[in-house]
Amino acid sequence: MFRVPTNSVLRHLALGCLLMALTAQAVQATVPAPEPDPAQASQEWLDGGPRSLRVMPPSLGPFNYLREFDQIVGFLAVWQELESGPDYGGMIEAESGDLADVIQTDNTLEAIWCWSRYRELTGRDTYDERVAAAWIYCLNFPAWEEEGAAGDDYYRVHNCAWGLTAVLQYAAATGDDTYASYAATCAGYIRSHSLELGTGDIYTQRLNAFVKGWAAGNLYLYAEAMSSGSLMAAAVDQGNDVLDWLNTYPPNYLGFEYWAMSSGTAVWGVCNSVFRDDPAAGEAWLTENAGYIDLWQDWYSVPGYDWDCSWNVAYCNAHFAVWDILGDETFWQNGVAIADALLSYDTDDDGGIMADSTAPDTEDMSWVTSYVAKMGVDRLIGQPHDHDVGILRFVGLEDGQYIEPGTPIPVRILATNFGLADAPDASVHIVGDAGDATWSWDLPFAALDTVIHTEAWLPPGQGQYTLTAWTELPGDENEENDTVSITLQIGQPTAVAEPNVAGLLLRGPDRNPFDGRVNFAFRLGAATSVHLEVYDLKGRRVARLGGEYLGAGEHSYAWNGRDESDRVVAAGTYLYRLVGGGHSRSGKLIKLR
Fold first, then answer.
1. I need a surface site. Which of 380, 420, 529, 569 has the fewest CB within 10 A?
2. Which of 99, 101, 77, 78 is closest to 3 using CA atoms?
3. Is residue 496 very low, low, confident or very high in pLDDT (cuts 50, 70, 90)?
4. Measured between alpha carbons, how far is 125 from 532 in angstroms, rounded to an integer?
5. Helix/strand/coil for 223
6. How far is CA 561 from CA 12, 480, 508, 519, in A?
7. How many angstroms separate the CA atoms of 209 and 195, rounded?
8. Alpha-carbon torsion, ordered 271, 276, 281, 285, to 10 deg
9. At what angle do helices 180-192 and 202-226 cross, to 10 degrees?
10. What is the pLDDT of residues 236-276, one digit of tens each?
11. 111: pLDDT strictly greater than 90
12. What is the pLDDT of residues 525-543, one digit of tens each?
């Protein structure tokens, strides 16, 4: 049932958060509002809303997804009720607004999943006490006894599905099966309370289909973990009900939204029940229909709830589930794009995401934030390395960006710790037309920091200018994220427009990694002087080739892997830069031995 936190309002006001005053009459915030008369509802809403616009927010990425997860679990910790009383351990729904006085079991189970997954990923027990408190709340207010009228089981079923995944993740992180009976009861409730999809108005059917999909998928995954054939069969039966509903007309039914879910939830559930049980059938159905799954739904007015961020994270979950079965990179990239767009709503960088994209960033929701962690960010972290620092981007600059001549350019580099261990002895380097520099840097776990090279670099004239930044860390286990190189276009290009002859076109290196000798082939659009430089990761130049005046056309330089003193350089990673005619091209080069 709905609950109001006892002492949390004063405590969170002390933190400077804007919480709504407690009202005299409780509002069931997670239950859909009474439906409008279908005759009065707009056809646009009945059909699932407008389909012509897909306006994702400008990305704040690329992201360090481990850092994003770290922020999310920290955000959730702020909104847990830890004052003594009946609500002890429960999760408050929202930073502020109408849901700031709501504590419920699903929010709390979601936080348990996030904190437990964080423990499994990082080995850190930072949130163990909070997990223990959250379980106290969930035992006091079990998922199968949450709000809902007799016969109206969607919310209890929804919460029980979260109970299954929370228990499984907690056990995976800790090896503790204390809450096995909690999960067993949740599974039994889902099995015995199969939601009806063929009765009621279209809104009830839509809601029940989404929840039933979520429940079927989680029931099947739980049944697999428990090696329960009977539960797997029950999950497949319920998943087939959802599949039949989707088959009514996939071009429409794969793009519906309502309450806190969308058709993406139904797709994820079918993929993780029916299609997990029969992958061949899943491959055939998805090959035919997955293209209809919505990629992004812009905000539109839904009676009662306009929770577009929640709808979209469900679509993110669906695209990743399709990728699991088809292995089609398109669906993986769709999931990445949606996850990045949702993370870009965190403009105050506190880890929280709002439910309604038109809401202020001071009205983030704990439950949507948990959804983004589980259904998006967790997919993108992979298995973190222990030692791994790198460059995210040049702040405010993009590769190929056009800049008016005479404009001062701030050169700032965003470095981050992708790894599990602190990195007190990292270094950040830059080479290029803005000048060379090296900094020693301390990057603790999940840190993100800005290195300022210059706030007012003024290129000397029109042309292309290249900047390359990279990190160095003793024992770094992942070189793929170490280096970022961008080329800026100052003023209009002066070379002819044809791209394969304009300016300087680098065709090499011919072998990378290389052993012994490597060739750099390039084409000049006009006669000019050209040279090639090679640097080590400390920013020291180890070789320089060329320097002569060359005519337009094809040319090449060959580096024999020796430094300027004619000594064979050590195996490792190097940076190269080819410069000519006001243009430059840079990249990373790996010598094997």
1. 529
2. 101
3. very low
4. 50
5. helix
6. 61, 22, 15, 11
7. 8
8. 10
9. 140
10. 999 999 999 999 999 999 999 999 999 999 999 999 999 99
11. yes
12. 888 888 898 988 777 789 9
The pLDDT assigned to 21 comes to: 26
Residue where the block lists tokens 């009514």: 248
Cis peptide before 279 (omega within 30 of 0): no
Q: Which amino acid is at 488?
A: L
What's the rounded Cα separation, in Å, for the pair 17 and 20?
10
- What's the full length of the chain, in residues? 593
The residues that bridge with 485 in the sheet, in sequence order, are 468
Tokens of residue 14, six digits = 């002390």
pTM over 0.85: no
Closest CA relative to residue 132, chosen from 165, 176, 101: 176
What is the pairing mode between strands 528-535 and 541-550?
A: antiparallel
> Which spans in 175-307 are helix H?
180-192, 202-226, 229-246, 250-253, 263-271, 274-277, 279-289
Q: For residue 43, what pLDDT is reported?
A: 42
Q: In what order do the strands lie in the sheet with 389-394?
A: 389-394, 409-417, 448-457
Q: Which domains does the chain show, CATH number per domain?
A: 8-49+66-381 (1.50.10.20), 384-472 (2.60.40), 493-593 (2.60.40.4070)
Q: Cα separation of 52 and 60, whole Å?
A: 24
Answer whether residue 199 shows pLDDT above 90: no
How far is Cα 467 from Cα 205, in angstroms, rounded to an integer?
Answer: 56
- Among the residues of 376-521, which ranges form H helices? 378-381
Model confidence at 449, in pLDDT bands (50, 70, 90)?
very high
CB-CB contact of 502 with 487 (8 Å)? no
Q: Which of 372, 366, 309, 314 is nearest to 339 (CA)?
A: 372
State both tokens at 338: 């949606």
Q: Which DSSP symbol is given to 509?
A: -
Task: Flag whether pLDDT at 6 surpasses 80.
Answer: no
